[in-house]
From TrEMBL:
Alphabetized UniProt keyword annotations: Hydrolase
Residue ranges of every copy of the PPM-type phosphatase domain listed in the record: 345-564
Pfam families membership: GAF (PF01590), PAS_4 (PF08448), SpoIIE (PF07228)
Source species of the chain: Streptomyces anthocyanicus
Record domain GAF: where: 95-324
UniProt xrefs under InterPro entries: Bact_Sigma-Reg (IPR052016), GAF (IPR003018), GAF-like_dom_sf (IPR029016), PAS-like_dom_sf (IPR035965), PAS_4 (IPR013656), PPM-type-like_dom_sf (IPR036457), PPM-type_phosphatase-like_dom (IPR001932)
Name of this chain's protein: SpoIIE family protein phosphatase
Length: 565
């Protein structure tokens, strides 16, 4: 207790032991109980001497096997568990157990070493969660929607609400949400239509969720006469405190679901629409089996708050997925499907996008035929990710094709491309939009098969690799020039001799840059790969990409290989 005098700290610990209303117990890394306070004994009736030195299954009550598994999981993963229901049997003639809310957290010392797991237990009144609803909803904000992935968010909602609210929970999303598309179904306007749903999340007090008829990702059957359709049509939650399959006419059309209800003793049902900004995203279903208490309005209110929070996360994830898919489709549509070197060169290209969490980048490449049988080779990289980077890449790619038609020297081509880039940035600023990309790099090279010379200019871009017929690989020391968008100096043009059979490799920095490594390490790796030889340039490109330390890479990778004929 930093900042508290030693004597006061001891008094505070004694108060936790004797006067606290929170039940506390601590198990060490061997799952032996090493500390317990008086409140816990008052709550579950187990004396301290019966608990100390014993495992959770021997020192708790109720479903002790599952509780010990939970303690073991918290110890192994470090992920705390909150709101776990802990039921204590009361008098033999009582019809109901006493309910508590238990939370579990892993303990560490000042050096980060694991000490064990602490359980904190609070009394829950008959009006469950009424007093700490705000705390539960706040905790859900940290546990649900941790990523921009709709399927994972749905699973997090299911995991968080079992057994907090229900013994079995399913989350089904419309197909449009799963694919990141714009949902077509407005809330409460299904008009008898059944949207296509897929199971996105499921959780149960039983391992493996055996109650579920569908695995995650599978299409879910929704009977037209079921209460699920009632929720879709009305846009309002449905509280069904007592679920009796013998009195539910709609189950006659759904025998598989009826069998599951009977097998697992499902006796209480709560169905909520998942919607955000007026659009239907899916349906969440809460069921009670082993918990004998029927759902009530307090349960419904808490479930609505948790689902509403999750719905915003799901909609944000859907929008992100849509933007990412749009950017990826845009980038792929702007890159050449195939490259041709004509009679001047044999060419091959490889493009490897960064992983989905990093987004879509602005790499591009091109091969352009010029008068006199010459060939222009282009590789560029727009800084940034997403739709803006892909769109800027596309505009620069079209601009450089137009400039190539003017048959200008490489340095002049980059100078004019620089001006184009500056105008694009200014247009974005004047339009009031967020400028997501502020610079770009590019290499523009022109190969003349008559002289076997290559003239090129760099705009802040890595120099190419040259592999001569003898197998030696070098990275010529060329003037790099400033990145596009600076607009201060012209771009100097350099010239390379490429004897017959020489190989030229143009690439973006994603191929050679490695985290926590000097760029020279990446250059040597690529150089070794280029000199190993291959039956074709296509195979060589695949071999070079295969040397990347991580796949997918943290940044987009582009490689353009060209060999004189």
């Amino acid at each position: 207790m930093s900042g508290i005098p030693e004597g006061e700290a001891g008094a505070a610990l004694r108060a936790l032991l004797t006067d606290s209303v929170v039940g506390l117990a601590v198990w060490d890394t061997g799952l032996r109980c090493v500390w317990v306070n008086d409140a816990l004994e008052r709550y579950d009736g187990i004396a301290r001497e019966r608990r100390l030195g014993r495992r959770p299954r021997e020192s708790l009550t109720g479903d002790t096997g599952e509780l010990e598994a939970l303690v073991r999981r918290v110890l192994a993963t470090g992920r705390c568990v909150t709101g776990r229901e802990y039921r204590v049997p009361t008098a033999p003639d009582s019809r109901r157990d006493r309910a508590f809310s238990a939370s579990f957290v892993r303990l560490h010392d000042d050096g980060g070493h694991i000490l064990g797991v602490c359980m904190l237990m609070l009394v829950v009144t008959d009006r469950r969660w009424a007093g700490d609803r705000l705390a539960v909803v706040s905790e859900a904000g940290t546990r649900v929607g941790t990523t921009l992935d709709v399927m994972r968010t749905a699973q997090e909602l299911a995991d968080f609400t079992v057994p907090l609210i229900a013994d079995y929970v399913t989350v089904d999303l419309t197909e449009a949400v799963r694919l990141g598309e714009e949902p077509l179904d407005r809330l409460g306007r299904s008009q008898g239509r059944v949207p296509k749903f897929r199971r996105a999340g499921r959780a149960s007090v039983h391992a493996g969720s055996p109650e579920s008829l569908w695995l995650n990702g599978e299409v879910v059957y929704v009977p037209e006469t079921s209460p699920f359709m009632q929720v879709l049509s009305s846009g309002r939650p449905l509280l069904h405190p007592v679920l009796d399959p013998s009195h539910e006419a709609w189950l006659a059309d759904d025998p598989a679901r009826a069998a599951k209800i009977r097998e697992f003793g499902m006796h209480s049902l709560l169905i909520l629409p998942i919607h955000a900004r007026g659009v239907l995203l899916g349906v969440a279903v809460f069921v009670r089996t082993s918990n004998p208490t029927p759902f009530d309005d307090n349960d419904r209110l808490l479930a609505e708050e948790l689902v509403a929070r999750a719905a915003l996360s799901l909609d944000n994830a859907r929008r992100y997925t849509r933007e990412h898919n749009t950017a990826l489709a845009l980038q792929r549509s702007l890159l050449p499907r195939r490259v041709h070197g004509g009679t001047a060169m044999e060419v091959a290209a490889r493009y490897l996008p960064a992983d989905a969490e990093e987004g879509v980048g602005g790499d591009w490449f091109d091969v352009i035929g010029l008068p006199g049988g010459r060939l222009a080779l282009v590789v560029g990289d727009v800084v940034g990710h997403g739709v803006n980077a892909a769109a800027t890449m596309g505009r620069l790619g079209m601009a450089i094709r137009t400039l190539a038609d003017l048959d200008l020297p490489p340095g002049e081509v980059l100078t004019r491309l620089d001006r184009t880039f500056i105008r694009l940035t200014e247009d974005e600023e004047e339009g009031g939009g967020e400028v997501a990309t502020m610079s770009a790099t590019c290499v523009y090279a022109v190969y003349d098969p008559a002289t076997r010379r290559c003239t090129l200019a760099l705009a802040g871009h890595p120099p190419p690799a040259v592999v001569h017929r003898g197998g030696d690989c070098s990275f010529p020391d060329l003037p790099h020039g400033l990145p596009l968008g600076v607009g201060l100096l012209p771009f100097p043009t350099a010239e390379l001799e490429l004897p017959a059979g020489s190989l030229l490799a143009l690439f973006t920095d994603g191929l050679v840059e490695e985290r926590d490594q000097d760029i020279e390490v990446g250059l040597r790796r690529v150089g070794r790969a280029l000199t190993r030889g291959a039956s074709s340039l296509e195979d060589l490109g695949t071999a070079v990409i295969g040397t990347l330390p991580a796949t997918p890479p943290p940044d987009d990778v582009t490689l353009l290989l060209a060999r004189g004929l």
